[in-house]
């Protein structure tokens, strides 16, 4: 793990590195009861996630903007022996929330298994150093611990991203770990037993449910929290603005902070196409094949800022976001092109104050 003093040169610092000062300030005032091996109390974890002002006047920035009760349920789940499954469409901050929960609870969000179609069972259980295995035979020295095994031994939180993208047999290797809190090592006739504080946070995209759906046996080992898309336009605009400003600082983009109205326009487009109807409820729209998520909106604005910084005057304009908007919408060159053209001509062209965005999209 990189030292805190080197975080300025890291492209993307872990949450516990990026927000080390806030975690330290919370630790100073946190006198509430902590579950075994937790770095702070559930109250402090909640304050770190949702933000707030401490008694000493220090301001904790919100990491997740959404329903408080959902986060309370997630934290309470991790204080029990039940694993947590964060479920939602792309862009609902599942990964973001899981990382910050791990950072606050364990002080370490780096124990991560990334789920893909090629994820092997060794990523969940353990592997072998084959040079040592051939020279020494099966031994603890030849064994290569997975992030799950390390988290069990250290009593920390491990994260499993995109659980439903893993093959079913790899998913089911979690069943014994989650039910017995034990990882058998039959080659050595031994096992690893989880230390108090160990738990697992998994994320899954519910649009990918049919890829490798979870078995009923595995589902029963999780407490599921469904993360919704932001309730209102203002809430989503605030999320995008905060994340873009954070990313802009990390990437050292020499651009002005994004104009809030430009952010609002991009978010409005994404919300309307996502729901299939305009904000005023008067016009039904064809929906694109893509997800039109909050994460995509953040990407469009960040890319626009890079264009404005390096090829403009630093101020975010409609011409800077037009390419990103079209790229986010047109995933299928046939179906989505029709959706984009119809939206431009029936909504963007007719909307007051959007002529510059219409021209930029048409030109691109």
Distance between the termini: 43 Å
User: How many runs of DSSP E, i.e. beta strands?
Assistant: 11
Sequence of strands across the biggest β-sheet:
4-7-10-3-11
What is the makeup of the main sheet? Answer: 5 strands, parallel
| N-to-C order of helices and strands | HHHEEHEHEEHEHEHHEEEHEHHHHHH
The total number of structural domains is 2
CATH architecture of the largest domain: 3-Layer(aba) Sandwich
Q: In the CATH hierarchy, what is the class of the largest domain?
A: Alpha Beta
What structural class do you assign from the helix and strand content? alpha/beta
The tally of helices reads 16
State the fourth-level CATH superfamily of the largest domain. P-loop containing nucleotide triphosphate hydrolases
How big is the Rg? 23 Å
Shape: globular
Share in β-strands: 5-15%
Q: Please estimate the helix content.
A: 40-55%
Low-confidence runs (pLDDT<50, min 5 residues)?
Answer: 1-5
Find the CATH topology of the largest domain. Rossmann fold
* Average of per-residue pLDDT values: 91
Protein architecture, described:
- The protein has 364 residues and is α/β, with parallel strands linked by helices.
- The chain folds into two domains: 4-226, 3-Layer(aba) Sandwich (Rossmann fold), CATH 3.40.50.300; 233-363.
- 45% of the residues lie in helices and 12% in strands.
- It has 16 helices and eleven strands.
- It has helices spanning 15-18, 20-29, 42-50, 68-78, 94-106, 130-136, 147-154, 168-171, 174-180, 216-219, 233-251, 260-275, 294-311, 318-329, 335-348, 355-363; strands at residues 52-53, 59-60, 83-88, 112-114, 126-128, 143-145, 157-161, 182-185, 190-193, 199-205, 222-226.
- A five-stranded parallel beta sheet has the order 4-7-10-3-11.
- A hairpin with a 4-residue loop joins strand 8 (182-185) and strand 9 (190-193).
- Helix 11 (233-251) packs across helix 12 (260-275) and helix 13 (294-311) packs antiparallel against helix 14.
- The chain is globular.
- Mean pLDDT is 91; it is low at 1-5.
